[in-house]
Structures are given as C-alpha cells and as structure tokens.
Design goal:
This protein is α/β, with parallel strands linked by helices and 224 residues long. 42% of the residues lie in helices and 14% in strands. It contains 7 helices and 6 strands; from the N terminus they run βαβαβαααβααββ. Strands 3-2-4-1-5-6 form a 6-stranded mixed β-sheet. The radius of gyration is 17 Å and the shape is globular.
C-alpha cells in the first residue's frame, strides 16, 4: 500500500501587498519539515506541487531542509488542480467595498478574523458570489476530480504541496463531509502541517491530520 501526504504551505504574507509568498517564518516552518522528514528516514516516490508561489516556495524550503539533513526528494512536477480556492480574493473584494473593515494586523487582527469567518460562511452558502471567480462548489468539484490523479497507483508514496483549502476539501471528500465541516477543518490546520492518507485498492483512508511534530515550539505554529 502507498501513501498520499498532503502538506499545507508555510505561513504566507497576510496583510502584505502580495499574500502569495512565504513570510520568513513560513520559510523556516517548511525547511524544518524537510529536515524532520529526512532525519526520520522518510522518503517519497513522487512529488507534486501546486501552481501558487507559496506552494513553490514551500517546496523549495522542504527540499533545502531534506538536503541539510542528508536526504533527497524526487524531482517535482506541477499540478494545476492543487490550487487553493478563491477565498482570499473573495474576502479582498468584499472588504474593499467596506470603508470601516478591520485590518488583519495589530489590535484589529481578531476582529478581522471574525469578519473573514462571516464572509467565508456566506460565500460557502452562496449568498456571496462573483461570476468571474470559481465558487466553493466548483472548487470542491475540482478537488474531487484531482483525487484519482493523486491516489493512483495505490502502491506509490506521493508528497503533494498545496493549500489548506485543498487539503481539507480532499479529506472532506474521503470522509463524506458537508461544506461547513470542511471549512472548519481548515481553520485548525497549521501552516506546514500535513495530512496522510493510506492508499489501497478499496480507496484512500485518513491516517493523520494536522501533523506538525517539526513545529514543537509554540512560536512556530501559525494558522495563516
């Protein structure tokens, strides 16, 4: 039996002009992940990486960490379907039209997250919609369509670097979860944490979620 290991990217740059790049902490988290796996003797047969900058930078740091500990990863291939859903853009557009919207930093950080949560739940429920953006259900369909490409053949160990939304949508499909529980799973997933699915002829089975032993220090654990 093989495995599919799904990694959420390291911390991105929330509040910066370009969210889609790793912060210095995000790079550290990702490098520590690669180092941890190499030290544990973990290996992979195949590596696939999502199309976003934060996916690629996470992969780069994981590779660096592996090499620092004397390990090596297979050459990676890109996979467009591993893209994150459109939540960041949806929230940006909604907040852009609100002059009094809170900011994702400083004293307003917690208020911003509460605002984000309300927007997300409305978007998931369909009351917020943008014709030019992939909606929540379309994203779930895309993830569902990518599953066979990631779990076959069932005797291969695959590492996939992507975003929290993709990870939790895939787990939601495996466990037959409704939309809101899938979203709420993503609220708990740490940056540079991983989920693991064991593969067999009868389909994938969830073995681990939100694993982050490489981030033992509390200061290394982030959610955005």
């Amino acid at each position: 039996m093989g495995k599919l290991t799904l990694v959420r990217h390291g911390q991105a740059s929330l509040g910066a002009d370009d969210y889609d790049r790793l912060s210095d902490l995000g790079r550290q988290q990702s490098r520590l992940l690669g180092r941890y796996w190499a030290e544990q003797g973990r290996s992979f047969d195949r590596v696939v990486v999502g199309p976003l900058r934060r996916h690629r930078e996470t992969h780069e740091e994981v590779v660096t960490g592996f090499r620092e500990a004397g390990g090596e990863l297979p050459e990676a291939t890109g996979h467009e379907a591993l893209c994150e859903h459109q939540a960041v853009e949806v929230v940006r557009r909604v907040i852009e039209g609100e002059s009094d919207a809170p900011k994702p930093s400083g004293d307003l950080k917690h208020a911003w997250f509460r605002h984000f949560d309300r927007i997300m739940r409305n978007w998931i429920g369909g009351s917020i919609h943008f014709d030019d953006l992939e909606n929540w259900q379309q994203a779930r369909d895309r993830v569902r369509g990518a599953i066979p490409q990631l779990v076959e053949p069932a005797d291969v160990d695959t590492l996939a670097i992507t975003s929290g939304g993709f990870v939790c949508m895939m787990i939601g499909d495996v466990l037959d979860l409704d939309d809101v529980p899938v979203y709420e799973l993503a609220l708990e997933l740490r940056n540079a944490a991983w989920a693991e699915l064991r593969l067999s002829s009868i389909g994938p089975r969830l073995m681990a979620f939100n694993a982050h032993p490489h981030l033992a220090e509390q200061t290394l654990q982030t959610l955005v």
